[in-house]
Amino acid sequence: MSHHRIVITGIGLTASNGNTLEEYRSNLLNKVSTIQNIETRFMGTVHAGVCDFDPLKYQKKKAVRIGTRAGSIGIYCANEAIENSGIDWENQDKSRVGVYVGTTEHGNVETENEIYNISQYDYDIRFWSHHHNPRTVANNPAGEITINLSITGPHYAIGAACAAGNAGVIQACQMLQLDEVDFALGGGVSESIHTFGIFAAFKSQNALAQHEDPTKASRPFDMERNGIVVSEGGCLYTLERLEDAQARGAEILAEVAGWAMNSDATDYVLPNPERQAQCMRAAMKRARMDPSGIQILNTHATSTKQGDIQECDAINEVFGKSDSTYINNTKSYIGHSMGAAGALELAGNLPSFLDKMVHPTINVDELDPQCNVGKLVIGEPVELDCVDAIFNNSFGMLGINSSLVVTRFQD
Asked: How confident is the model at residue 2, as a pLDDT?
């Protein structure tokens, strides 16, 4: 593998509190959560993060109808990222563009809806959608993007549970370093709120958040936290080799300096702090950095009792002696956007390279002593003298862990 430096040149996103990076960042700094109550089949009212982007900005009505919500989210994010990158897309060699989209699960929404629909017709399969197969194949979100943007290079969706957003970025970096592509879209998407199954499963595990005020339901590290807020969303980055970005005069937003992924190999659901710590150390080793060089660490913490504690144990083990690392959480605003989480949470912190602000963790009324980790930013933003490096944790079920190190670009 070559040692090309890989840089981020564009960002496209949609989250429950923003459809552009500027709107999203403003709401983080102003402590605005937009978690709301929705009605879901068989369960009634649940808390959720809902996106309000316009799918018809980049798709025709027919494409939206026959495609998927995840596909629409991906298409919106991809188009926004490409526009943000300033690349001459019309003259770009589309056979040298790769699309790598992280997902948690895909196809559940469509399958649930189609089964429910035919149940209204005594399960007569004549009423089953002929769009079912392309909607539910694992590569769907990435594939819909390639059709929309006429991309003929490689595409696939990356199933990495809630580490998938980071995994999409990592895969894009690796393919660029291998010279398999010249331009890549990497990140993650999630359509999870449109399936009752995910809500029902978390509820059966006693891990679904409940609060009288939905905007306060997602509360990592708080003593009264009681579970996850399920959210939809997406974030895709345009990534390029440094020399290619410089040759076209691109504005470079950040450099991906290091990454790592590993597996707990211990449990289906409960995380393993020892393996998480190993993952963090491996990412810093690749970046040739130590904890003291990291100014912001974005936690994965989902507001589950044990999950938050386990991650804090891992962070204390790795970053415990660093007095220069400030720690925050983004799920407290937008809930858990599953396959999009890593990518969206990284995006929330990237503007810190310019404004030097660390957005706070909100909804922490009483900090759990077992989550008392380092310089945890709670309640109000903190302004730093400089931000040179951001560390992004994203962990998932079946023990998959990912960590990213992103640095302020310096030639």
From this structure: 58
Show the CA angle centred on residue 214, arms to residues 210 and 218, nearest 5°: 65
Domains of the chain, by residue range, sit at 6-247, 258-407
Instruction: Give the Cα separation of 384 and 391 in Å (integer).
Output: 16
CATH 3.40.47.10 for the 6-247 domain, yes or no = yes
Q: Which residues fall within 8 angstroms of residue 134, CB to CB, at 6 or more apart?
A: 140, 143
**In the beta sheet, which residues pair with residue 84?**
none
- The span from the CA of 134 to the CA of 107, in Å, is 9
Q: Position 184: which residue type?
A: A
In CATH terms, is domain 258-407 a member of 3.40.47.10? yes
Q: How far apart are CA 266 and CA 272, in angstroms?
A: 7
* Topology alike, domains 6-247 and 258-407: yes
The 3-state secondary structure of the chain, one letter per residue: CCCCCEEEEEEEEEECCECCHHHHHHHHHCCCCCCEEEEECCCEEEEEECCCCCHHHCCCHHHHHHCCHHHHHHHHHHHHHHHHHCCCHHHCCHHHEEEEEEECCCCHHHHHHHHHHHHCCCCCHHHCCCCHHHHHCCCHHHHHHHHHHCCCCCEEEEECHHHHHHHHHHHHHHHHHCCCCCEEEEEEEECHHHCHHHHHHHHHCCCECCCCCHHHCCCCCECCCCCECEECEEEEEEEEEHHHHHHCCCCCCEEEEEEEEEECCCCCCCCCHHHHHHHHHHHHHHHCCCHHHCCEEEECCCCCHHHHHHHHHHHHHHHCCCCCCEEEECHHHHCECHHHHHHHHHHHHCCHHHHCEECCECCCCCECHHHCCCEECECCCEECCCCCEEEEEEEECCCEEEEEEEECCCC
pLDDT, averaged per 10 consecutive residues of the chain (411 residues), comes to 86 98 98 97 96 98 96 98 98 98 90 94 94 94 98 97 98 98 98 94 96 98 98 98 98 98 96 97 98 98 97 97 96 98 98 98 98 95 98 97 97 84
Strands 400-407 and 326-329: unpaired
Looking at the annotation, which residues are catalytic?
162, 300, 336
Give pLDDT, residue 1.
47
